[in-house]
Design a protein that fits this description.
With 71 residues, the protein is mainly α. The protein is 58% helix and 0% strand. The protein has four helices and no strands. The longest helix has 15 residues, at 24-38. The protein starts with a helix and ends in a 6-residue tail after the last helix.
Length: 71
């Protein structure tokens, strides 16, 4: 939970974890956050992470890398 709070805090500086541009930190966290969402983690309580995840899901590369391979 503390790690997720750190990730959420980074989102106060822009739409992505490294600020205004999508970067490697977003790529690195994407699989962890996506799996937590699939497991029912209550991200709705954390607006910055919920917003980040929605922006992430809107990326075509996310659909190709995650959604197309979901069971």
């Amino acid at each position: 939970r503390a790690h997720l709070a750190d990730v959420a805090a980074r989102l106060g500086h822009g739409p992505w974890l490294q600020g205004e541009r999508f970067g490697m930190a977003d790529v690195a966290w994407s699989s962890t956050i996506h799996r937590l969402v699939l497991l029912g983690w209550p991200f709705a309580r954390d607006a910055p992470l919920a917003g980040w995840y929605q922006r992430l899901r809107s990326r075509p590369s996310f659909a190709r890398g995650f959604l197309d391979f979901q069971p």
